[in-house]
Specification:
Chains A, B: Its main location: cytoplasm. The structure is a homodimer. By secondary structure, chain A is α+β, with helices and mostly antiparallel strands. Chain A is built from ten helices and twelve strands.
């Protein structure tokens, strides 16, 4: 029986001024999913590793099987699959953990089915899994995890995705402080009404960030990485956030923000050296306040989820 | 005595989802300003034509002289100039009339002074004139009138301008219905608080519009030309607005919006033929409701204000 394994990367959603509309993928860190056809006509999650036993095995609750089921329903297929999930991503960290599992599962299952869908076409199926995992079928993690690079979610009705260019050299440092932050808390602190002025400032910044990505203009990207809408509320939930923000700008990083709904913080840097320095700065800041932090350094991943060659 | 004449074009500010941060210049329609050095050490507005006698001649109230005075102060010069303004733009129409006068005056005076400033560097001086004319030193008309093309005003503190690409073939139809609309009324109908959801929708659309300009993707531009913040309030002040909006999309135009604070409506079109059809559609719509309308058809002007060659 043929087995196919796919990898899907971690992602940063809510990219500062790109709150709720922009995400990007990083390299290396991510989830692996192996899929085999079975004869039961059912989706069966056979094993999950790396999750500390926290993820559900039931096919109607696991993001891998829910995503595949959405694809099979669309295709009108009753194919059964065995699913093996290897988590490489921490849960609930704000790095798109549920999205990576769904994306990897879809890429592997799509391959076994003869690749009827492009990776962009897989996004709506992964969004069904996000509904189960997060309560909302948002695309800002699943789209970049599948498609790679920076992906703009211009609209949901209908879904309108725009893949944006990744300037050469752009690096990301992900900083995961060991503190628990519930997505529901991160969402509840958001203001529901904002001033016209703040909305205009945010528009100027997202327009600047998009322009900076197209122009490869790191300074414009840096000036634009300011979030006046979500960050002022959410940053209060992450001790050391503002001190770190100043530190990383002083060493030449382009800017920082909260990854997803946190607590992970992302830093964008113009080269690997500064990305490494940002990681060290974060270790210093969090050590002072008694928090451990995991540091991941990566280029922005422009290819998204992919099949692992030795398994094909 | 040397005389220099410059032309500066009409402009569209508040480009739909680019409310308060984006403007673009059009061809042909605009103002001419002639400047001659004098020995009085003063700025003297010698004549104004085409304004129906409505514009002030006093040097501290006229946008030409106020803009030039700001430049001279920055330069530390006490040079005097005679100024002749030929208005080619209707006043109070939402086509950047005051901005065009200031921009033309600055380009002409800058030339007589030996061109110490680039056109982008002239923008802050023109903003001083906008303070006099509109009560606020906004840049979304003066920057495109000087620099041409689409200009993003990412921020004001400090001023951060980004010139964006103009896709080949892009045309604009300006529709000026003969009705009076005070800028103060247009501003007072704006909501001061907006929902987080509307702000996010607007962010997605401006990000899509900017991407569409860089990619030369007319369909993406079209999908993005939706303003959920200012237009729902302001459109009520312009009879026929929504009927026209549907009409012009049905004939293949990319979208429409209120130019500046109105009443002029701009239409973006993928070619000249559709731009002309949009003009005819507007004549039909406004005829039904008993309003005359002036129609101007133009490419997007990518060069901005310029010196008239026969005068140099």
């Amino acid at each position: 029986m043929k087995k196919v394994t796919a990898f899907a990367p971690a992602t940063v959603a809510n990219v500062s001024c790109g709150f709720d509309i922009l995400g990007f993928a990083i390299d290396e860190l991510g989830d692996k999913v192996s899929i085999m056809s079975n004869d039961s006509g059912r989706l069966e999650v056979k094993s999950i590793s790396g999750d500390g036993g926290k993820l559900p095995m039931e096919a109607d609750k696991n993001t891998c099987s829910v995503a595949i089921q959405a694809m099979l329903s669309h295709l009108g297929s009753d194919q059964g699959f065995d699913i093996v999930l290897e988590k490489g991503l921490p849960l609930g960290s704000g790095m798109g953990s549920s999205a990576a599992s769904a994306a990897a599962a879809l890429v592997a299952a799509n391959e076994l089915l003869g690749a009827p869908y492009s990776k962009e076409e897989l996004v709506p199926f992964a969004m069904e899994a996000e509904k189960i995992a997060c309560g909302a079928g948002h695309a800002d993690n699943v789209a970049p995890s599948l498609m790679g690079g920076f992906v703009l979610i211009r609209d949901y009705y209908p879904l309108d995705l725009v893949k944006l260019p990744v300037p050469a050299g752009l690096h990301c440092t992900l900083l995961h402080p060991h503190l628990e932050l519930k997505t529901s808390d991160s969402r509840s602190v958001l203001r529901k009404e904002i001033s016209l002025k703040d909305s205009t400032v945010q528009s100027g910044n997202i327009a600047g960030l998009i322009s900076g990505l197209f122009l490869g203009d790191f300074q414009l990207i840096s000036r634009s990485l300011r979030d006046v809408i979500a960050e002022p509320s959410r940053a209060l939930l992450i001790p050391g956030f503002y001190e770190l923000r100043e530190e990383i700008r002083s060493i030449g990083a382009l800017g920082s923000g909260i990854s997803g709904s946190g607590p992970t913080i992302f830093v964008l840097a113009p080269d690997k050296e500064i990305a490494i320095m940002a990681g060290k700065a974060a270790e210093d800041v969090f050590e002072k306040i008694g928090l451990e932090v995991d540091v991941y350094i990566s280029e922005v991943n422009n290819k998204g989820a992919y099949l692992l060659e030795d398994q094909i």
